[in-house]
Design goal:
52 strands
């Protein structure tokens, strides 16, 4: 196949990478030449404030030295004529600030902790001194942000280390942050539990690690590279209205920064163990399901040259033998299958302080994993094995070019593979009650190569209406994506009724007996199928989409009380029209040989923060537009699979042929299919290509009650537009009712084709919420964070269930609609080096999709479920039970020798063994309709325990 050859031509690949890099370098150089100041705090923090004398008068010319305590590196800034200073691009961690001015006593501020993405304010008061004098003051930066209007929060070092975490997936910890909702995804290699925001799907969430994107390009709710919990220092969660420096996300942002070495050699060796001996009985099988999960790893870091060059290395290995059991109400099919999982992760990071004002960071990370028998819905023949492997290389440069100008450059290259290796090559048998045979969307392999180049500047400018904190930047994102997508290669048969003997069907499937299937039809064990679909041609693909983006941001301090956040960004997917190439067979008002690239993606963003005189209370609000990245997976399928040029799926109605179950194609080839106009299913993309977007608005108040406790309340409104949905445009409909007419009787408007799945950008969504949160940082030996969300979520989320229906009829409550959500997390330091941590979660029920499980109207598509009186269920019509869960963690540390410590850890998840479900059977033809289905998501399991140890120095 040509596509396979292209994927393995290393020279062509390297040419693409370097040519993309050269073009990106030109873009970056153009931005540099423009001379406009810009900045980003994606992977760092900043500190700003005003220095005054005892009378409150501003002090220009004060020299402030900001020393990073862990590494000994420092940055020097000088206050401006109005006494203000700002230092960007600072490493997260603990700082000591020294303020010096001739004639004044030197002030030393200690205990300043800067969190990831934080813009902390630290005002300093100096007094006149006749002799040399130094005043030392200990105090932390304020909890509330008086300069930014967006909504977000942080998970600090203590939360990352001391909260209970089943499975040690660091991204699952973000579920405790205010404004976050679970993604609901199943556990798998490289998946991560990416959360969702603002009623959006979790593929509209961007995940950044060390300032660069890690989302997989064809499946945005997954990550390319995973990281051990022990390699991640802290996490920032931006849930609404983030600034213009953040791109390609209309839901929310997850920012993480990895650990780095310090001036002190340190390391750890740890093991975390789960065993079924500590678990409660499974809610579905009534027995304790066997599990033995072992996670072993270690870290080491320290100075290669004190105050200049530091390293950090981490490694972790996981082995988890496990099983899964389908639940469909058919005892014969409800068997347990091996579902073993293994993963290895490694990371090496180097930090080099070239000069006092220039820092370089290099990071290499790798992930390899295997999940056996994934996607076993009704029978093991449905499943596939999922190996995953990937490598990431990142280079960051942070350079303070002057007192007011900072340049940050980032580059990343990722190589990633995630095939789905089918467990069976028997035709798919689609019965109303259950499916047997090969999964319809497995692929032999999938290969991704991603190159990201980004450059950002920042500066500080007084005048023209106030103090301007200016930012400007650009990025170039080039991708090479290829593979072989195996859809219906082994055939697909749809049946109107269940078989009379499931055992006979299982026998022929497991024996891979094609002739036996015809025999079952002849004997009346299976009914006559309504139709069959078989794949023909070449389904390999190789696409090279590229994205160019740039932004401008001005955080304008109009007065000590009022700050305006003014920003705009622009993103364009340059080769989008090539990726979503149209089929050459169709013409009409909404199709053409090649689509048009969406080039009007301007994103204005405006916000305000008003701080009252005591700087302890602020009102914040604003609005803006946020664009996603095109869901490339749909474009790939269109170009490589469904366009009918090189690949086709003829839709063959049952014709009573005595060998129909053995050979329905009767010698049909792709060439003869095209020449004879034999009906085939195809997918077409609308020529009106749009990048989906969301308009986010919020207004709220935040107040710092004490030095360590702050509360906030925000009203949030989000509307989503141009969301992708599918419609079969090749059906005759009843003019009186709008219902589709049976294909077997009336045929198709275009007889050359079966289903024409027209992918259009006419979906929409809406989210309204009240979000309340309280945060207490560590003091008095404890800390906590609590949040409550009251929300409503609507969307056209069921559009693909019944693509014949008008989009308006499919708009309603979405599967992200959860009315109430309450989360509390906290840690307490007990006497004798004992630490307690806990998470409490409670939520009302969520909705899930329902369908009839069969074709009710003869359009050869699965229809919406119906009530007994014939009324249609809503697309997302089922409602789950409410959920709550308590997780606890206790640890005890003892000193073995000098700085060598041993920590024993015990964790208990779902302490009261509450039956929480996330998956339900929505197939109306199944005996288990509306019944819960066993999930592999670790957040929805019976009571489990985990024991661990950590040796550290």
């Amino acid at each position: 196949m040509q596509g396979i050859e292209a994927l393995h031509r290393g020279g062509a690949l390297m040419t693409w990478i370097f040519s993309s890099g050269i073009r990106a370098a030109v873009v970056v150089c153009a931005l540099l030449a423009a001379g406009v100041p810009l900045a980003a705090q994606i992977a760092e923090a900043e500190l700003q404030g005003v220095v005054v004398d005892e009378s409150g008068g501003v002090l220009p010319g004060v020299t402030l030295t900001l020393r990073h305590v862990e590494t000994g590196t420092s940055r020097t800034v000088v206050t401006t004529e109005n006494g203000r200073y700002i230092a960007r691009g600072l490493r997260v961690g603990n700082y000591e600030v020294l303020a010096e001015l001739v004639g004044f006593a030197t002030v030393r501020r200690t205990g300043i902790t800067l969190l990831l993405g934080q813009a902390a304010t630290l005002d300093i008061s100096m007094k006149v001194a006749a002799v040399e004098e130094t005043l030392t003051v200990t105090g932390e930066a304020p909890l509330i942000d008086v300069g930014r209007s967006g909504i977000g929060s942080n998970l600090d070092v203590r939360q990352m280390q001391d909260l209970p975490l089943n499975g040690r997936d660091w991204m699952s910890l973000t579920l405790v942050a205010p404004g976050v909702r679970g993604g609901g995804g199943e556990q798998g290699p490289g998946v991560g539990n990416i959360p969702s925001f603002g009623g959006m799907n979790n593929y509209r969430t961007k995940v950044n690690v060390d300032g660069v994107q890690t989302n997989e390009s064809t499946n945005f709710n997954s990550v390319d590279i995973d990281f051990s919990q022990d390699s991640v220092r802290e996490v920032q969660v931006l849930s609404n209205r983030f600034s213009a420096e953040f791109s390609r996300a209309s839901g929310g942002i997850i920012n993480a920064v990895t650990k780095s070495g310090t001036n002190k050699f340190s390391g750890s060796f740890y093991g975390f163990f789960r065993n079924d001996a500590f678990n409660a009985k499974d809610w579905f099988t009534g027995r304790v399901e066997p599990i033995q999960d072992n996670q072993i790893g270690g870290t080491i870091g320290g100075p290669l040259k004190k105050d200049r060059l530091h390293f950090f290395f981490s490694w972790e290995s996981e082995r988890r033998p496990q099983t899964q059991t389908p639940r469909n109400g058919i005892p014969l099919l409800e068997k347990s299958y091996p579902n073993d999982f293994s993963k290895d992760m490694g990371m090496l990071r180097l930090d080099y302080q070239v000069t006092a004002n220039h820092r370089l960071t290099a990071r290499a990370a790798s992930t390899s994993a295997v999940l056996l028998n994934d996607n076993v819905v009704d029978h093991v023949s449905n499943g596939w094995d999922r190996p995953t492997w990937g490598q990431s290389y990142v280079l960051n440069s942070s350079w303070a070019l002057s007192q007011r100008v900072l340049n940050e450059f980032r580059a990343q290259y990722i190589n990633f593979d995630r095939p789905r290796q089918a467990k069976s090559h028997y035709p798919r048998l689609d019965f109303p009650g259950a499916d047997l045979g090969t999964a319809t969307n497995s692929f032999a392999f999938k290969d991704e190569h991603l190159l990201l180049l980004r450059d950002d500047f920042s500066s500080y400018l007084s005048g023209w209406g106030g103090d301007h904190s200016l930012k400007f930047g650009g990025e170039w994102f080039a991708q090479g994506i290829g593979g072989i997508f195996g859809t219906n290669w082994d055939g697909y048969y749809r049946f109107p009724r269940d078989p009379t003997d499931w055992a006979e069907v299982v026998r022929v499937v497991e024996a891979n007996d094609r002739v036996g299937l015809q025999d079952l039809l002849n004997r009346g064990i299976i009914p006559a199928p309504s139709n069959a679909v078989f794949a023909l041609g070449d389904a390999s693909y190789w696409v090279k989409p590229k994205i160019l983006g740039f932004y401008f941001q001005d955080d304008l301090k109009v007065s000590p009380a009022l700050t305006l956040n003014l920003g705009v960004r622009y993103d364009v997917e340059i080769d989008a029209a090539k990726v979503v190439r149209q089929t050459r067979f169709l013409s009409g008002p909404d199709q053409q040989p090649r689509g048009k690239t969406d080039r009007n993606n301007w994103s204005p963003r405006i916000g305000f923060v008003y701080a009252f005189n005591d700087q302890r209370t602020t009102i914040r609000g604003g609005g803006g537009r946020y664009y996603d990245q095109l869901h490339i997976n749909s474009g790939i399928q269109d170009q490589a699979i469904f366009n009918g040029d090189t690949y086709a799926q003829p839709n063959i109605l049952y014709n009573r042929d005595p060998e129909f179950m053995i050979n329905p194609l009767k010698g049909i080839t792709l060439e003869s299919l095209i020449a004879q106009n034999i009906p085939t299913n195809i997918r077409a993309m609308s020529k009106r290509i749009h990048v989906s977007h969301a308009d986010q608005f919020s207004i709220g108040v935040q107040h710092q009650l004490t030095g360590s406790l702050a509360v906030q309340a925000d009203v949030v409104h989000t509307t989503g537009g141009h969301e992708l949905s599918g419609h079969d445009v090749n059906l005759f409909t009843d003019p009186a009712t709008g219902e589709p007419l049976p294909v077997a009787r009336f045929g198709r408007p275009d007889p050359r084709f079966g289903l024409i799945d027209l992918q259009q950008y006419d979906g929409r969504s809406r989210y309204d919420a009240l979000q309340i949160a309280a945060t207490k940082r560590f003091s008095g030996r404890y800390q906590y964070q609590a949040s409550y969300i009251l929300s409503w979520s609507y969307a056209t989320s069921g559009a693909n269930l019944d693509p014949t229906r008008p989009i308006g009829e499919l708009y309603g409550p979405s599967d992200r609609d959860q009315r109430h959500r309450f989360v509390v997390n906290g840690t307490v330091q007990m006497p004798h080096e004992v630490m307690l941590g806990g998470v409490f979660f409670a939520g009302s029920g969520t909705r899930f999709a329902t369908n009839a499980g069969r074709d009710l109207n003869g359009d050869l598509l699965t229809d919406l479920a119906r009530y007994p009186d014939g009324r249609k269920w809503p697309p997302v019509g089922g409602m789950s039970d409410s959920v709550y869960r308590i997780d606890l963690r206790v640890s005890k540390r003892v000193t073995l020798f000098k700085s060598l410590t041993l920590e024993g850890i015990g964790e208990l998840f779902n302490v009261f063994n509450r039956r929480n479900y996330i998956r339900y059977n929505g197939n109306q033809s199944s005996r288990a309709f509306l019944q819960p289905i066993r999930s592999t998501n670790l957040q929805y399991q019976p009571r489990m325990a985990q024991l661990a140890f950590r040796v550290a120095f």
